Amino acid sequence: MGAMNPYQPVTAKITKIIDETPTIKTFILEPKPLGFEAGQFMELTVFGVGEAPFTPSSSPYDKEKMEFTIMKVGRVTKALFELKEGASIGVRGPYGRPYPLNKFKNREVLIVGGGVGFAPLRSLFLALLHDAREYKRICVRYGARTPHDHVYKRYIDEWNAHEKVDILRSSDMGDPSWKERVGVVTVLLDEIPVDVKESPAVVCGPPIMMKFTTQKLLEAGFPGSNIYLSMESNMSCGLGMCNHCRIGELYSCKDGPVLTWDQIKHVEEPFV
Amino acid sequence: MFLAKLCGFFSEATKGMSELYFLPAQKLESLLARMIEDNLIYIPVVEQERAHFKRFRPGESFEWALDRIRPVEPLKGFFMKFKEVVAKPGGSLEKKSSRSVILGPKACDLRAMEVYDKVFLAGEFVDPFYKERRENTILISVDCPQPEPTCFCNLVGIQPHPLKGFDLNLTPMNSGFLAETGSEKGAELVRHARILFQPPSPEQIKERDTQRAQAVKTVEATNPKALEDNLSRKVLDADMEFWERESTTCVECCACLHICPTCYCFLLYDQKDDGGSERVRVWDACYYAAYARVGGGANPRADFSRRFRNRFLCKYSYFPGYHGFFACSGCGRCISGCTAKIDIREVLWGL
């Protein structure tokens, strides 16, 4: 077989597994198996079980390792959760279009995350932070169901200390330990901290959260071309061939996985 | 004058592009026999009154189906197996390939290969298995002399005789075939078996042209009503009531999609094999309920009418939007194969 086989993954080693929440873990792969840009995704294989697409949550500039923050929802993720540190998995990619960071330059960037949707946004956030002088401000609005469902709790204070960073968090349901906002993540958007006409808003979370967040951003005056949405769809090959991940005429794998509201607004019920 | 032109044509034989020859009827099997040592050869034969592709083995008796419409089987299966191992996650995959000659594809079959070529060769990623098989296969197409009532190639921008996409094309006529080369592979094939071919006579060329015009007339008479110029838009704009109505009788067997020569959807799944794992690619079809379902269980096309509509969107709107032609060859296999007797033309005309 002379030509490269795009179905064949490379083998990578899980060196560390971090429990983020009862249903979310971060898997650290070392050495870094493949390069990527923020927003691009990989197909991870649990040998003998199958593969599924995930966007790395680590910085694309990290040369040593690659991280994935993953929620247990289906067959492949269940098998992933049974793996121990030291296990090998398959990785192929990167696929899809990265965030257009050149368009974000000299702008205030609004990042809105829900639940495990913070995973790909962390990669973007770290990429922005890496070149922080290029951006006016980085505002993160993040919500999860309960305080226990928040990911990356250990990093928040450090990130927030950066002069260009402003992070606010909410929990749909609070508890006595929770000192931040209570309510779904859109309550954090009652006041928009950025220039709505110019700023990109980058959103990732469960479909219902994406739907209401998009609505709120549009009402606030963001143009649809500046609202970047991580679209979920059934995906198989990741190569733009198998046709599974179609969202209207677009492919989530090769045109996305991040699409702007303007690209998908003609699709009926894009958030399923 | 005409003959002089033809001679000029022949002197250019090494160039590989369109050259005409006459192949006497009794020489066709000799031509195949010359290639059998290095190739798997498939030919169209009549079985249960229809054309089917079958391995050619000299000495075995069979009934040629060269003057029939396209074979029951679409060409895609030769290049993308219904099911095959495409990777060995955690290991490495060794694959042997063989050379083939496929005799008998029609113009519609060649159009379907154009669709496949766009998907598997022309994108950002290339399918190495498809590519290798395409390169290792010689396509000898054959004119469709008598289109049947299920044929509608004229509605999708082609006609019953191939104009491109073949290595060699044969027009069956009284005493043999008018052969036209369409590629360097085809020209080389003729060079190696030059002794079997003769210069065509002007009468033979005229016979071909008359026959082709007749076939065009036949298929146009079957499908007198052209599809709308803005079909892609009409498919997009049709409301859900239309799709609900059109899909009522469908039994969701997916025969139309699997038999369709342009449908190319597939699914990858992994399974354990001896001490390791293998990745299998299998044909898929967008009518299956789980086709678009995501990890958490949500499904953007949970209603069948939406899945039914998706087939039309894909073929007549999305694909032409990218590539400029329909992902439909007008072969009519979906009509012949439909348990519920749904005629795709009726749906398109009804838009």
UniProtKB/TrEMBL annotation, chain B:
Source taxon at top rank: Bacteria
Domain 4Fe-4S ferredoxin-type: 241-271
A Pfam family that the UniProt record links to this protein: Fer4_22
Xref: InterPro entries: 4Fe4S_Fe-S-bd (IPR017896)
Protein name: 4Fe-4S ferredoxin-type domain-containing protein
Record organism: candidate division TA06 bacterium DG_26
Lineage of origin: Bacteria, Bacteria division TA06
